[in-house]
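subagent[fold] <- orchestrator: predict structure for attached chain, return tokens only, no commentary.
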Amino acid sequence: QMAGLKAYLYANLYVSWRLARMQRRAERFISAMMETFLNDPRQLPPSTAGAVAHLGLERAAADYVACMTDKGALLEYRRLFDPATNP
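subagent[fold] -> orchestrator:
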């Protein structure tokens, strides 16, 4: 039974087309935000200025993105890239 369950989960969850889409979407989503922050640090919120000075831009931007919830990251992405959303 355990082998059957593992086979089912592997085929239908771990390598499913839905999961592959979600993973790739998340990679593009995070990469786009990081690229934007690294190319124009002025787009980082003022609260990260101390971290940028202390840790450097790359680490501060990565920490800023890493601490976001899924909902917060989606909102930040919209603020950066959706022309209909207020910055």
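orchestrator: received. Logging for downstream: The radius of gyration is 18 Å. The helical segments are 2-14, 17-39, 49-55, 57-66, 70-81.
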